[in-house]
Design a protein that fits this description.
Blueprint (H helix, E strand, L loop, with lengths): L6 H35 L1 H16 L1
Helix pairs in contact: 1-2
């Protein structure tokens, strides 16, 4: 199957995306680690916190 783009173009798009979201990327990574920590440390409350985190990403 032939793809509609070249490998170089694919990596170029990824590079542009990474540059565009760079400052926010650190915040999103921290939020992801926090959600994993909640699941491990407080599994009873994890459902609400993870749902809240995912809802904030959706908006």
């Amino acid at each position: 199957m032939k793809l509609p783009f070249t490998q170089a173009r694919f990596f170029e798009v990824l590079a542009v995306y990474n540059q565009a979201v760079w400052p926010l990327q650190m915040v999103l990574n921290a939020a992801a680690f926090a959600m994993v920590a909640v699941v491990i440390l407080a599994p009873r409350k994890a459902g609400r916190w993870v749902s809240l985190g995912l809802a904030l990403l959706r908006s």
